[in-house]
Specification:
Blueprint (H helix, E strand, L loop, with lengths): L11 H15 L4 E7 L5 H14 L3 E6 L10 H8 L15 H4 L17 H16 L4 E6 L6 H13 L5 E8 L4 H11 L4 E4 L5 H12 L6 H11 L3 H13 L3 E4 L2 E4 L9 H12 L2 H14 L2 E3 H8 L3 H13 L3 E3 L6 E4 L2 H9 L3 H18 L7 H11 L3 H17 L3 H14 L2 H17 L3 H5 L2 H4 L6 H16 L3 H15 L5 H16 L6 H18 L3 H15 L4 H17 L3 H19 L3 H12 L3 H17 L3 H18 L2 H17 L3 H15 L7 H15 L3 H17 L12 H8 L5 H8 L7 H17 L3 H15 L3 H11 L9 H14 L3 H13 L16 H4 L5 H10 L5 H8 L3 H15 L4 H12 L1
Parallel strand pairs: 1-4, 1-5, 2-3, 3-4
Antiparallel strand pairs: 6-7, 8-10, 9-10
Helix pairs in contact: 1-2, 5-6, 6-7, 8-10, 9-10, 10-11, 11-15, 12-13, 12-14, 12-15, 12-16, 13-16, 16-17, 17-18, 18-19, 18-20, 19-20, 20-23, 23-24, 23-25, 24-25, 25-26, 25-27, 26-27, 27-28, 27-29, 28-29, 29-30, 30-31, 31-32, 31-33, 32-33, 33-34, 33-35, 34-35, 35-36, 36-37, 37-39, 39-40, 39-41, ...
Length: 957
Amino acid sequence: MQTRAPHVVGRDREVTALTGALRRTRTGQGGAIFLTGEAGIGKSRLARYAAGQAYGEGIRVLKGRGTTIGPMVPFRPIAEALLGLFRGEPPDDSALGPYKPVLGTLIPEWHDHQSTTESVVVLAEAVLRLLASVARTTPCLLVLEDLHDADAETLAVIEYLTDNLEDQPVLLLATSRNEPGNALELIHRIVQRGAATPLELRRLTRPEVEQMTAACLESEQIPAELSDRLWTDSDGNPFVIEELLHGMVSSGLLVAGSTGWQVLGELKLPVPAAFVRSVAHRTDRLGPQGREVLSIAAVLGHRFPLSVVQRVTGTDDRQLLSHLHAGVAAQLVTPDEPAPDWYAFRHPLTADALLAQLTPGERAELSRRAADVIEDLHPGLTGDWCPLVAKLRFDAGSPAQAGLLFAEAGKRALTSGAAGSAVTLLDRAQRLLTDDARAEVLDSLLPALAETGEFERAFGFEKDLAELKDGPGKAKLHTRLARVAHQAGRFTYGVEQVRIARALLGPDAPDELTAQLDVTSAYLSLISPSSDRVESAASLARQAAEAAARASLPAVACEAWQLLGIIAREQDLDEANRCFDKARALADTHQMPIQHIYALVRLAGNDWLANGSTGTLERAHGEACRAGAITVAYSVNAIMALQLVLAGDYDEAAEQVESCLEATARLRFHSLTRYLLMVKATLAAHRGNRQETDEAVGKFEAVAKNGGAQEVPLCYGLARAFCALLEENHVLAMQELDLAEARESESPTPFHLSGSHGTRVLLAVLDGRFGWSDYEVLAKSSAAGMRWNRQFADLAHAVLLGRDGRYAEARQAFDSAQEAASLYPMARHLGLRLVAPEAEAWGDPVTWLRAAEEYFHQAGIPPVASACRGLLRQAGAPVQQRRTGTDQVPKQLRGHGVTVREFEVFVLLADRMGNKAIGTRLHISPRTVEKHVASLIAKTGQPDRESLSAYAAALSR
C-alpha cells in the first residue's frame, strides 16, 4: 500500500495562483512564480501538480533541476530543461539567427567548435528567444527545481528570464529552499521589483495534518493517538508525515483492521531520529546488498547513475534491478525520468538520512571506491563527472587529488563562459592545494575574478603571492594582476605589477614569459598620462608579437597584432590593415574563431572609414552571426546605424538605433549602449534638433559616468558641433570642436570622426586660425584621408589654394571634396554653404548656395536655409521667396501676426544678442534687425526690448 497523499492538501491559495498563471500563459501573458519553503514542505509536489495541469491544458512542459550530484555544474537545470525539446520533433530554429550557435553551450546538437563564447546575459537572451520561438505554437511551462543547488550562471539566466517573460506565452515555475544563500537573495530581488510572484509554503495546520493522514491511509477515520503523534513529530511537514506513516505501516506499528486503522505498540520516536529510524528500518529490510546499493547511491548524491553503482557493488543486472525495485517499493528511490540509467532518491532528506547512518570511515571508503569506478568508466571526466569525482576525492580524505580536479573543473567552466562557477570551483581548489599547484590555480582564478567584476578580491591575493617562492610562476601571477588592473582601470597598480614581474623574470627571461607581460604592459601604456603613450604601446606590442611568434603563443601574438592595428589606424590605414591581416591569419591557422571575427570586423571598419562602404561590414556581420558572436554582431549594427545617420537615412537610422539600444540595454552591453547613445545624439544633431541632441548627450553622460569614455569626443565633434552649425552658430561649433580635440588628446579614441581631422580643420581655415602649416600637419595623418573627414579637409585645402590665387588647383580640391561628400548629403550641402563666400574667384557660389538653400529648406532647417538666402542676396542673385515655415512659430505668436523671419529674430533675442550679432547670424543688416525688433515689440505688447528679450527667453524654456 502507498502511504502517499493522492492529492494536494492545504495549498488552496497556491493552487489558485498556479491555475491563474497557467490560464494567463495560454493567452500570451507569461511570468514567473517562485515556490519557496523548507525541505519536505511540498514544493516539488506543487510543481508536479502544475505540470500535470499544464499537460492537461495543452501547455508544453520543460523540466530541469539544480545539480544534485557533486558541486554545482554551470547551467545544468537550464540545459536539462531545453534538452526536453529535442526528444521529439526538434524546435524550429529559423528565428534564432546568430543566437543558435550561442545555445551550443547547452544543446549538444547545436554545438559548433567554430562558435564563440559569449557572456551569460547573451546566453540568457538566446534561451529567451528559443522559448519564445517554441511558445509561438504551443505555450510553455518551464519548471526549474532546487535552485538552492543551482550555479551562479543558472541564477543569472533565471533573473534575465523573469525580467523578460511578461509578453511571452512562457511561465517560469521555480522552487527553492528558504535557506540563506544566493538563490534566496536573487528571489527576493526579483520579487521586490515586481518581476515574479512569490509563494512561500507554510507548514500544515493540525486539521490539515489530519486531512492529509486520512488521504494517505484512504480512510475517513484515523486513531486519535496517531493524529497526536504525527502532529507532534512532523511539525506540519508533509514529507515527514508521509515518511513517518510509511515507517509505522512497514514496521507493523500501524495496521489496517476490519474496523479501520489500529495502533499496535509505542509510536513515540524522537525527530529527526524518527525519520532516520524510518529510513534505516526500510533499508535494513532490503538486506546487506540492498543497503550497500543505496549507501553508495547516497554518497554519489541525490541522483545517481546505475552504471557506477553496479560497478562499485559488483552486482549483476538482475540483482541490481531487484534491489532498485525493492527500493522503489519501500518508497526510497524512484526512476529519474527522462534520464536513462539514472535513479533519484524520493527526497534529498532520504539521502541525508542514509549518509547519517555511515561512519566517517565507511563514507570515505565508499567515496574512494565510487571515484575509482567513475574515473575508469569515464576517462577524462567530461561534463559533470569532473566536479563529482573532485567531491568524492575530498570526502575520501584526498584533498590534493580533490584540489586538482576542482581546478580542472574550474578551468573548464571559465573556458565555457561560466565565470561565476569557475570562481567557486577554483577558489575551492586553491584552498586545498599548496605551492606550485596553488599558483597554477591562481593563474586561472585571477582572470575569473576579473570576469565577474570582483577586482578587489583579485587584488587581495597579492599578499598570497608574497608567500610563493620567487621565479617564473610568481612573475606570471603578477602579470595576471597587471592585466586585471588594466581591466579595472587601475593604471598605477598595474604598472607596479609589471615592474614586480620584470624584476622577478630578470633580463634574460624566455619569450614565453615576456610575451604576455609585454602585451599587458602595452595596454597599460595606452591609458597612461604620458605624452609618448602611443609610441610606447606600439613598441611593447610589437615586442610582444615577435616574442609570441618565437615561443609559439598564437593567442598572445594575435592579441598583439590586433593592438598594433588599432594603434596604427590613426597614422596609416594600410599598416593597420596589415596588422589585422596578420591577426586574422594567426586566428585561422590556430582555429581561434573569436579572434578571427575581431580581426575581420576591424578590417571591415577600416574599409568603412577609408571609403564609406559597408559591404565588408555586412559580410563581417554575417560571419559573426553564424559564429554566435552576438557582441560583435551588435557592434557592427551600431557602426551601420552611424553610417545611416551620416548618409542622411534618418528614419531608418532611428529605427536601427532604438532596436539596438533596446537589445544592448537588455544584454547589459554598456560600451555599446554608450556608442549607440552617441549615435542617437548625432542623429538628432544632424536633423538640427537641439533639444533631442542635448537629451541624448545627457543620457550618454549618465551612462559614461566618469566622462572617460572614448565616445566623448564624438559627442562634441560629431553631434553638438553639427547641431551648432545647423543653428548657424559657428562660434559655438568651433568651441565644441575644440573640446572634442582636447578630449581626444587626453584619451586617444579609435573612432577618428570627432572633427579634429575634418570639420575643425575647415572651420579653423575659414576663420583664419589655421594656415598652410597647420593644415599640412593634419593632412598628413591617416585620419584626414578617411572619407567623412576628407570631404572637409579637401574643402579647407580648396580655400587655402583659392586664397593663394591657385584657382585651378582650388577647383580640383573642391571636386575631390564633392566626390568624397557624395555619400553624405547633409554634410555636402553644409560644406557648400560654408565655402561659398570664399569661392567667388574660383567656384560657382551662387549655384552652390541655391542647392544648399533648397536642401536645407526641404530638410526643415531654417537657419541654414535663411543663411543661404542672405548670402545669395549679398551676391546680388535673385532669391526664391519661402512662405512656408509658419508652423515653427508658436501658436501664441502666430496669433499676434509674427512672421517666420520675425520669429527667427525673436529666438535669438532670448540670448540677449545685439542687432549686429543677430544680423550676422541671419545674414541681414543690423537696420533690418532693428525693424523686426520694433515690429515684435508692437505685436507682442512688450514695453521695450529688454522685456521682449525676457519674454523670448521664457517662451523658449
